[in-house]
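Narrative progress, year one. The postdoctoral researcher (J.K.) led the effort to move from monomer predictions toward full complexes, under supervision of the PI. The following entry was the first complex the group processed end to end, covering 538 residues in total.
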Amino acid sequence: MPVIETPEGPIWRRRTRGQAMARWFGWLLGLAAFLWCWSRISEATTWFFVRDAPRIAGDILGRALPPRWSYIDNLWWPIWDTLNIATLGTIIALILAVPVAFLAARNTTPSALIVRPIALLIIVSTRSINSLIWALLLIAIIGPGVFAGVIAIAIRSIGFCAKLLYEAIEEISATQVEAITATGASRWQVMAYGIVPQIAPAFAGIAVFRWDINIRESTVLGLVGAGGIGLQLQASLNTLAWPQVSLILLVILFAVVLSEWVSAKVRAAII
Amino acid sequence: MLRLDKLTKTYKTGDQALKAVELEIPQGQVVALIGPSGAGKSTLIRCINRLVEPTSGKVWLGDTELTELGAGALRRERRRMGMIFQEYALVERLTVMENVLSGRLGYVGFWRSLTRRFPQKDVDEAFRLLDRVGLVHMADKRADELSGGQRQRVGICRALIQDPALLLVDEPTASLDPKTSRQIMRLICELCAERGLAAIINIHDVALAQMFVARVIGLRAGAVEFDGPPDALTPDVLTTIYGEEDWVATIDKVEDEEDTLDPEAVA
């Protein structure tokens, strides 16, 4: 198509004239749509506030600095709670995710017709709802506090862990499983010797990865009353106690960096 | 000792991998099973220990008929059949010792195997076998640290520690260099002789098979085409085994054909 016969011989272009025109027209339409949207957003924006933004941000920063260091004494417990919510939630999620993963993996599921779809449904449904929303629901059911946060994190993480784990199970080498089966090993022995060693690194990787994510997620759970440092953050924001806010943000940053460091160490150790 | 009676396997796709194979192997005989890829060699040995379920026919191991057995009885009979694989099929992340001891899983309860508390006599036997194949110093290495030849030796130990009556060997040398291939074949045949084991060895390399075994069976399109001593493998016989229609299905086999028709090898 892009080869054009001329008296001097064939000429090659990447696109025919018609295709090139169509592409230019497409770009034109896209640009027009962008400009139109921009103008609509502009109409709906109070530009006075936006122009004012740098000054306000500077003002808040000025009020927030220096952080109120003495407030740290009120933060030890909440950050400890936050770490516990993340850790306990991850452990509970892993315990529940392992059987779900084995039921969902094509090569280990007892029934591809009935059990597997149920396992997949559990994975999809727990994964699709944010932990903040789970926390809101659970606070209504079991009341505010750390426990609601732990359960929210756990439920949210089941699907994530089970999905990654069942993909790892589906990728194992079948011949290693075959070899263990051929020795006369029982079903559970085949699992312990043929499958578990093959997925152990993936499992450890998933566990620390999810724990790492859960530390971030559990810092905000307090915003809705599910325990942890988010509670202090919300209280400080509501009372416009900016020096406290800056200290809380620093503490969260520190916790996240710490979790990054731990998970990097663990991942390096298991490879 | 092993008797196949009209053993047939038809896959779900409709491919008939085995067509009523009749075969009898006496105690202590080592048999090479040759034939082009897709002839049903792997299917045949996997139908014996039912890693692949045969469609019909019977398999007799001694006085026991295997195809009718329930799950528990099948596991007990599998202990009497050691299997050795092409790609070694060791559990890569377990140590050499754990891999060898996994051959005892059929004899040990679940919790003992999970906590790796195998009976001392099993551990003694594992050390003896590793010593026999020259790998006793590697016992604590992880399986993925070993070379191909070493891995296959561990695979042999795993099969032998089952205390089997029969070895099912699936392309033991296909992933190895020529020298290591000979060493592994020699080792398998020596060990079979030492212990009076019968063995079925699937093998592509006809020359190598002729060097070590007493009996060769040629399989073609799921049927026994040749059964006799290695000397009886003439170029004509090889032509009937590796017939033209099979070349279409397996282009890779051109190399093998050259090997097998090598006058030195056939002589």
